[in-house]
Amino acid sequence: MRKDRPSMTALGVARHRAAHQMLDKPLVFEDPLAMAILGPDSAIQLAAWHPLPEPRTSRYLRAFVSVRSRYSQDELALAVERGVQQCVILGAGLDTFAYRNPYPGLRVFEVDHPATQERKRAQLQSSGISIPDSLSFVPVDFERETFVDGLGRAGFRPKVPAFFSWLGVVPYLAVETTLETLRLIASLAPLNTLVFDYPEPRESLSEQHRAAFDRLTSRVAAAGEPLKGFFVPAELKAQLHGMGFDSLEDLHAEAINARFFAGRDDGLRVAGLAHLVCARR
Length: 281
Description:
By secondary structure, this protein is an alpha/beta fold. About 40% of the residues lie in helices and about 15% in strands. It has helices at about 10-25, 40-50, 55-80, 115-125, 145-155, 175-185, 205-220, 235-245, 255-260, and strands at about 85-90, 105-110, 135-140, 165, 195-200, 245-250, 275-280. The two termini are about 30 Å apart.
């Protein structure tokens, strides 16, 4: 993204989450604020944005956007049961968890680019969504500092276990930038938990799926946010182990569908090369 404007993909992700609330039953991920954060005319916006009949690739993407939020919040619930009281949302975009946080003792830190965060605060105000006392905004210019620097200013306790949610960001980062972020998280407190998603390289796709992949990459590149960060699962697993993450779950599309989309009548499911990872130290 350009440093002087908010992320366009953040808005697209928010629309997919809202569309899931409207179009899919049963819900994989319930978000009562997904529509509200888009503004008072959200239903009209979605009707104009969401094409009917719906392309198959749009359903796949909506399913993945929804299920990764579900997966992250399932893992957060387990972390809270273990006593974690800090939650960091890296690249928060228009995520709504902090505004419906059900855990009284959980402090939430939203880390994002200043322009994207400024836009979100305007969206919250126009939508009438209150900012809870348990939330800290952490604007970070990543060209000048790390997210750890920003968290330190916001009162984050680096030596106390935390849960990190990092969704929809890794594909837009250079590989080394992702690895450095993972190393930073690993260098903090033991017992940290991290959930993130990543795609495999294009060459891992079948011919059938490459055309859809190419359409997606062209669309996000045209928005100024090209895809950059691709990982081979076995290589990434070895790198995470080398950083000290000794408990790993890496779900590919088949595993995601078996856990979250089995038995549906509407055929909603994920496809392609996106993975969900939960890594713990």
